[in-house]
Structures are given as structure tokens and as C-alpha cells.
Please model this.
Amino acid sequence: MKILVVGGGGREHAVAWALRRHGHAVLCAPGNPGIGRVAERLPVAAEDIDGQVQLAVEKKVDLVVVGPEAPLVLGLADALADRGVPCFGPTRKGAQLEGSKSFSKEFFARHGIPSAEFFSCRSMDEVERALAHLGDSVVVKADGLAAGKGVVVCSSAREARAAARRMLVERELGAAGERVVVEQRLMGREASILALTDGERIAVLPPAEDHKAVFDGDLGPNTGGMGVVSPTNAVSAAILDRVRAEVLLPTVRGLASEGIVYRGVLYAGLMITSDGTPLVLEYNCRLGDPEAEPLFMRWEDDPAPWLLGAATGNLPGGEPCFSPRTAACVIMAAEGYPASPRSGDEIEGIREAESLSDVVVFHSGTRQMGDRLVTAGGRVLAVTALGDDVDAARARAYEAAAMIRWRGVHYRRDIGLRDRR
Model:
């Protein structure tokens, strides 16, 4: 097949790498230097809806796989459908599950999907009423897309007020923060469950566990993700069955009942409580990043029929085939991430790192300057390795990461340690 991958980060690199490994012709727009090693790069921005549609039609692609959430929220899948091009990714209405926290929370309430109690607020007075009801331990979320910067976990009312003020009053996040969700803070262990869906059926992918905080020990501000292990012992077979029955299937049925044809991936960010109850923290309408990197390294059969089947309403029967081995992904970030990451620093050592067996270095935020590869984003590289167990996978990933260097490079040293407990 000829497949267009939209985007230019680590997730898109992982998708392109896996598709190319199975012999497909892969285009990527706009891509990045790492993606350029496995796909033809084309200079069309991910959010250029008209440009992406024109590219798909001119290149006569069989499938478009949309990586980032923004093009979906802007209606790329709708525009492709108008031209008869299959798209792995939901329509604009379906993408509201990620594009609007208020929409998703209200959707959960309508369809009995377990989640935290919440208030949707447009003013500081409404925030005060929410805090009076929920107490001091809350999470403040910008309603719209905020590139991983719109969630603040608070341990006091003072922190919550400050976070809400930055969004609602100071407009730190622009239009994304015109409304905020204030919700009960849930305690437990986080996990990510992704499922492919054709609008009726689902195929659940292996569970993964992201590490959101920037520093070891889950300290510091939340980020877009500092590392992942897959599979994870945070999700037992019994819990996975509950997620399927209580979260994923009710979501697909709820969307259909509201006239929304949802084709692509449902990414449930969950909190698993101490008694094993899965509660939904949020939904994403696209493949996770950095969850995609270990998942696609473990994906053994050809992912293309699964992605095309979801896009065309004809998901294959059964489940995709994944390696029983563990994958660990370590995000190497720029100095100052997430608040004010440096860029333009030369990166060295990737070739040496990839000379190790069972290692792939996926590019998340890089660009080429002449013969120099330099940093061009907060999350720069996703160093991903396979091992027979979590100890072996994380040891190999950290061995590879230690070979890569640039000024101010930062990464967590405790990715995967939770799975050793």
C-alpha cells in the first residue's frame, strides 16, 4: 500500500518505521530527519488541511494515518472523506473527545463511563464554587488543546486558584483556556489503554504506562510524556477486561448513539485505583506519544490492514499480534523542558546508540542544519528498546541513551521502575 502519515514527531516516526518494515511505500508530511530515513518527506504542515488533502489525492494514497490531534480537531478526516480517501482518525465531531475536556466529561456522564466528579468553569467565581464542593485536592484542565501543558495537578486550593487564573484570566494558553475543567484528583496508578475501532468493533492494544512528570520520582510539572513501558503490570487481565466492558465499548456505543462515526484509535488515559477500578482521566483521539513508540516496536504482524480496516469500517477479526517481549522508551528532552526548552543544540551519538541490538531511536524534535542534526523541540528523541523483561528492556534503553549527547540533555532515570515493584 501507499500510505501518507501526517505529522512530524516520534509517534509518526514509529508508525512510518513499522509500515516501512512491512514493505509499504510511506510518505510523511512534514516528517523529520529520522522519518526521512524510512519515508519520503513532503513539506506540508500537519495543520494545513487543504494541503494534506491535495497531497493525498495527487499521490493517490491508499490510506492516510493522522498522527497529531490538531488536524483531526480541524476536520482533516472530514475533508479526506469528501474526496474518498480513507483516513485513520476520527471526524471533527469525534475528535471533540480530546479537543474539549468539557465535551468529554459531559459525554462520560451521559453514558455512565467511570470518571472523576467535575465542574466546567468559565470564571473564577465558578472555580471557587467547584473548590468549595470538591475540596483542595483537584486537577485543573484547560478545555482545549494545549500541547500537553493544559493539565495542572494541585494539592491545595491555592495551587488550583493560581492554575485557573493563569488560564482563565491571564490567558496563558490562549483560546484553549477560555474554559477550564476542575475535577476531583484521583489516586492510584496511571495506565494507557489504546484500542483500534471501526465505529462498531474494537481491537484492544497491549497496555502501556507513561511517566508524565518531568523529574524522577514523579516530581515536577506534567509533560507530554517522559517515557513508557509496555506491557505494564499496572493492568492485569481482569482490569483489561473491565476497561473493555466499562470504558471502551460504552464509548464506541455512546458515540454511535449520538450520530458520531468514530474510526481510528481510542486512547484512554486511566487511573487504576487500589481496588482495581479503572477510572478515565482523559481520552485522546490519536495514537499516544510516547506510547506509540514501544507499541509499534512490539507489533509483529503488518499494522496496515488493521489501520485500513479501522478507517474503512471493516476492522479485521481477532487481535493484532504483539511480541511477548517488553519495550521501554526513554524520552531525551531539551534543557528547560517543558517550560522553555532550548533548541539548536547539536546532537551526537545516535548512530552508536542504534548499533546496539533491539534499539531504535525515534526522532521527536530534531531538524537538519547542513550536516548537523540539532534539537528542535522539547522532547527531542524517544530511545526505545526491547528486552525479555522490564529490567532487560530498560537496561538496554538506558545504555543507548547514555551514548547520545547534546548541551543540557535531560531524561528521567526511573522509567520502568514501577513495574519492578
The chain has 13 helices and 22 strands. The chain has a mean pLDDT of 95.
